[in-house]
């Protein structure tokens, strides 16, 4: 087979839950390879081949889910490059892959099941200065948050109290959490304002995708992060629209989607001087059976209290959902500069933060909505 031109490589999960890497070799040639097969056939000399005999030293039975889940791919005229979730790097010659197309599939139905979880908008900007008291602009901003899940506000300035005031006078009052009336999101050693700082948000470490306050009945629908001082290195934010994730779950994995919306699990916020629990499904549906809200927090979740025969089905649904959430194309990256904010709907979006160094300071606030 003659290689004409390389167009793209993509990773996806088919409707049966199989992890695949699809490669378009030319205008008419598409093949999808199992990630298990690809990882098992990595021939790197660092970990997969014996350093002296060059024999394969990895058995497929030893590969974990993390080791067969793709973090990202890159392709050029010669090779396919894969970085796996365990940060292992593999290189596959495209000519070699073409020799093994009989182990792959070009079935159009499989290709059509590629998951569409990318956000409709990559970045939604809104400009609002700190001296702007135009209530119509505030209302428009919050309409964008309700419609798109978030709004990225530039050129506001550093006066967080002014921002709080603007939202309050437009019927979006502050919600006081167990951390305080607002949060100084910085490492705990610098924070003398907030209570109960023994949690991930007050460390330098990465905080993966989650929603806030899932352990209280009426968790706040709106959240803002206001950059006062950015990190020396790292500290960027990511958000994911769960409406699109759940729509994909319903289309490809309806049984799993049903489990997430009907099976309660226990959220248990347990800290040194605070504890709050709530049992609820991850997904809440409206009266028409459509997505309404999400609650998800890997660091405040209690052990699943399910019967033996229900444990694997629920873990399957839970893991599929969060694998979709973690997909790179589903995430919107936000790199806040001092004076910029992001406002997002905590019932619709999950958010995360990368690890960082330096005296990063974000002002975090929760807001309710008063309907008159």
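Q: What amino acid sequence fits the structure above?
A:
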């Amino acid at each position: 087979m003659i290689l004409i031109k390389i167009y793209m490589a993509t990773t996806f999960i088919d409707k049966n839950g199989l992890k695949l890497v699809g490669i378009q070799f030319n205008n008419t040639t598409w093949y999808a390879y199992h990630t298990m097969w690809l990882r098992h056939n990595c021939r790197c000399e660092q970990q997969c081949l014996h350093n002296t005999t060059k024999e394969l030293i990895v058995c497929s039975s030893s590969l974990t889910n993390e080791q067969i889940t793709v973090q990202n791919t890159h392709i050029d005229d010669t090779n396919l490059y894969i970085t796996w979730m365990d940060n292992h790097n593999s290189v596959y010659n495209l000519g070699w892959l073409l020799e093994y197309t009989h182990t792959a599939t070009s079935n159009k139905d499989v290709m059509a099941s590629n998951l569409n979880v990318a956000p409709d908008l990559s970045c939604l900007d809104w400009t609002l200065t700190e001296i702007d008291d135009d209530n119509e602009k505030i209302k428009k901003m919050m309409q964008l948050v309700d419609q798109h899940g978030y709004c990225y506000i530039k050129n506001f300035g550093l006066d967080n109290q002014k921002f709080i005031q603007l939202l309050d006078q437009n019927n979006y009052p502050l919600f006081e959490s167990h951390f305080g009336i607002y949060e100084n999101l910085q490492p705990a050693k610098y924070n003398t304002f907030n209570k109960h700082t023994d949690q991930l948000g007050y460390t330098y470490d990465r905080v993966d995708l989650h929603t806030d306050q899932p352990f209280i009945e009426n968790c706040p629908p709106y959240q803002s992060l206001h950059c006062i001082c950015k990190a020396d290195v790292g500290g960027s934010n990511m958000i994911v629209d769960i409406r699109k994730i759940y729509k994909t779950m319903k289309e490809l994995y309806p049984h799993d989607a049903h489990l997430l919306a009907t099976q309660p699990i226990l959220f248990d916020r347990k800290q040194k001087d605070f504890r709050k629990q709530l049992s609820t499904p991850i997904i809440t549906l409206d009266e028409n059976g459509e997505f309404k809200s999400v609650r998800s927090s890997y660091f405040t979740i209690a052990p699943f209290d399910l019967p033996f025969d229900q444990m694997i089905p629920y873990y399957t649904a839970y893991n599929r959902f969060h694998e979709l959430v973690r997909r790179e194309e589903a995430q919107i990256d936000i790199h806040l500069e001092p004076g910029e904010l992001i406002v997002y709907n905590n019932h619709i979006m999950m958010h995360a933060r990368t690890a960082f160094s330096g005296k990063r300071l974000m002002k975090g606030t929760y807001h309710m909505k008063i309907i008159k």
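Q: And what stands out in the fold?
A: Residues 308-326 form the longest helix (19 residues).
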